[in-house]
């Protein structure tokens, strides 16, 4: 059969247009910078992309090999001379200008000088450390360095910088043609100078807008009545990136993961490079990344992919609970003063506000400011207080900073007291046995505790497994006791206080996130390793996982992925049913509000993802909720058509 197919492909006649189309398709499939040998490029070419009409990938490849036999595969001397002439005329064009022998070398920064001087010494002292850990240690050492010792590196840098500037000027004079090619790219093109009037106007405009932002906005609204806009329609939140992050964290919104392994590596590395100038941080990150082995890079990428999966689940959970919370506020009338008092009494474990000097200052000045400026909204008062704090002299700020330190000390003391209430940690079999025989050994060695300890360890190591079984069982009972006491301590209030997620009734259990976790769960549940302490148990599981064939690892990985998929479906169903069980009786009477509340979610500030993704996610959630409610026959009348909902979603 195969022989017949080959015969048909060979006998098939290719038209000239088809041959030209084949070559054009090959040209498109090649990479933009094709600098490898033709044989290498041919072996890496994706022939599936080249295939067209009735010609398969194999037929295209076979035809190309026939055509290529008729073409020479070497370069003539004439062709080489033309390329050589071009190289001699412009040997340092483009990015190669820095390879020019006369091009001055940029001086190292003070931190880099310190790093290069100490790196070899610390690498010898700590050979087990990775490049990342070594960088963190040296960065910390440089931060702790006294100014006198830092001055040496700074002086060397400034001296070399002056030499570099002079050498650069000399290079520009000697090679004006190369410098012109650099300037054309726009890398060092200076900004066009402004006129005196432009400089004065920009300065005055900035100062005026900083002092009178609200007055300018009110004046604009009065001058443009045709816009039919109020001040609330125009004024937006002026939170900084750090403040937005703080608000999202307090709302319970999960942190967005980095897009790839390289970004995760950079984020971890930059936390230890605060003294390095921002312009050089990315360069250092790139250099460190290149030094990593491929296995280490793959590990970062796997961690990143895992974090993305967790983020997706946490984000869906956050959005659904936000929706439930808004609907509960509408139904129960939580905005009334009576309900606020009731809620404040019923929730003693309410999360505390962050303690800071600025917060203490704002709480002190806010009542007075509200009396003096009643026309201002709360957001405007907050911005005004922030400006007042920034303009406050350092001497007056000291008072609030002292209060901040006192309050923080009290808070830390309370946290320590809470931590001291934890149950006693579980003991392993050896510790329980030693505790039962310590008296006999101390008497034998005349209260010499170190000798008694060594003798007990030697006895335990030579003891047979049958003799150890009793103590292993006692250790298992102690472990159960510890887990029971910890579970008793875990309440919704404790979960909120510790920053952990609250477990709700009926919520599906989170599955293992990867194949290794699934394998670990299986090994821990079958009781095969119960005789080992927890630390040794996990080490044994890790070694068994390493010895596991790749086929079995893939099987566990597929099981974990399937469990994750099932968990997503179960979580969405549980959230929908929970909403119905809580508010089912009211849904038919409040359906309009329910839909409007879904549409208004994006305006609450809690959901700040891109608009397209937000619309898609909200529409999907609405469809699922409506389908579930229809099945339960709880929706008597839906007065808002789906088409109008879509129009509202597009207007968001």
TrEMBL record:
Residues annotated as transmembrane: 591-612
Gene3D superfamilies found in the cross-reference section: High mobility group box domain
DNA-binding region as annotated in the record: 104-172, 255-319, 351-419, 423-490, 509-575
A GO cellular component entry from the record: nucleus
Skewed-composition ranges (Basic and acidic residues): 408-424
GO molecular function (one): DNA binding
Positions of region (Disordered): 335-354, 408-429
Domain HMG box: 104-172, 255-319, 351-419, 423-490, 509-575
Protein name: Upstream binding transcription factor
Source organism: Oreochromis niloticus (Nile tilapia)
């Amino acid at each position: 059969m195969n022989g017949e197919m080959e015969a048909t492909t060979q006998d098939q006649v290719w038209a000239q247009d088809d041959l030209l189309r084949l070559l054009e398709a090959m040209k498109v499939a090649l990479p933009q910078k094709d600098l490898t040998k033709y044989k290498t490029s041919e072996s890496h070419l994706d022939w599936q992309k080249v295939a067209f009409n009735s010609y398969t990938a194999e037929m295209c490849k076979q035809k190309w090999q026939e055509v290529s036999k008729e073409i020479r595969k070497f370069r003539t001397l004439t062709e080489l001379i033309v390329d050589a002439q071009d190289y001699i005329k412009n040997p340092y064009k483009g990015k190669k200008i820095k390879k020019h022998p006369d091009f001055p070398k940029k001086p190292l920064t003070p931190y880099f000088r310190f790093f290069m001087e100490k790196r070899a010494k610390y690498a010898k002292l700590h050979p087990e450390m990775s490049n990342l850990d070594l960088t963190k240690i040296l960065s910390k050492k440089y931060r702790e360095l006294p100014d006198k010792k830092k001055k040496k590196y700074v002086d060397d840098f400034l001296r070399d910088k002056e030499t570099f500037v002079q050498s650069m000027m000399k290079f520009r004079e000697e090679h004006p043609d190369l410098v012109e090619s650099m300037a054309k790219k726009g890398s060092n093109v200076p900004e066009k100078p402004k006129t005196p009037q432009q400089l004065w106007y920009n300065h005055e405009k900035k100062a005026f807008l900083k002092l009178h932002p609200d007055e300018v906005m009110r004046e604009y609204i009065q001058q443009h009545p045709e816009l039919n806009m109020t001040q609330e329609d125009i004024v937006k939140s002026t939170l900084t990136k750090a403040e937005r992050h703080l608000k999202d964290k307090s709302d319970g919104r999960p942190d967005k993961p980095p897009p790839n392994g390289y970004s995760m590596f950079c984020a971890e590395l930059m936390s230890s490079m605060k003294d390095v100038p921002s312009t050089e941080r990315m360069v250092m990150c790139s250099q460190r990344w290149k030094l990593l082995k491929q296995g280490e890079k793959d590990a970062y990428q796997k961690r990143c992919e895992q974090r993305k999966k967790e983020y997706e689940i946490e984000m869906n959970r956050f959005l659904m609970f936000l929706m439930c919370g808004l609907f509960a506020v509408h139904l129960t009338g939580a905005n009334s003063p009576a309900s606020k008092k009731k809620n404040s009494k019923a929730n003693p474990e309410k999360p505390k506000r962050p303690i800071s000097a600025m917060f203490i200052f704002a709480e002190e000045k806010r009542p007075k400011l509200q009396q003096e400026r009643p026309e201002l909204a709360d957001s405007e008062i907050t911005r005004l207080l922030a400006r007042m704090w920034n303009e406050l002299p350092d001497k007056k700020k000291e008072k609030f900073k002292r209060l901040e330190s006192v309050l923080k000390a009290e808070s830390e003391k309370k946290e320590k007291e809470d931590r001291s209430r934890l149950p006693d940690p579980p003991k392993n079999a050896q510790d329980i046995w030693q505790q039962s025989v310590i008296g006999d050994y101390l008497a034998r060695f005349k209260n010499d505790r170190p000798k008694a300890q060594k003798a007990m360890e030697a006895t335990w190591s030579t003891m047979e497994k049958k003799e150890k079984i009793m103590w292993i069982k006692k250790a298992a009972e102690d472990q159960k006791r510890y887990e029971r006491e910890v579970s008793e301590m875990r309440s919704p209030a404790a979960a909120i206080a510790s920053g952990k997620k609250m477990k709700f009734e009926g919520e599906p259990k989170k599955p293992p996130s990867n194949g290794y976790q699934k394998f670990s769960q299986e090994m821990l549940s079958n009781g095969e390793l119960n005789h080992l302490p927890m630390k040794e148990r996990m080490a044994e599981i890790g070694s068994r996982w390493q010895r596991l064939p790749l086929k079995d690892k893939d099987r566990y990985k597929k099981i974990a992925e399937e469990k994750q998929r099932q968990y997503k479906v179960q979580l969405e169903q549980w959230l929908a049913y929970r909403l119905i069980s809580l508010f089912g009786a009211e849904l038919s009477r409040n359906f309009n509000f329910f839909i409007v509340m879904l549409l208004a979610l994006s305006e609450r500030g809690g959901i700040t993802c891109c608009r397209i993704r937000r619309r898609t996610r909200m529409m999907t959630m609405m469809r699922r909720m409506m389908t579930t409610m229809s099945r339960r026959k709880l929706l008597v009348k839906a007065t808002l058509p789906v088409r109008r909902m879509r129009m509202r979603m597009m207007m968001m």
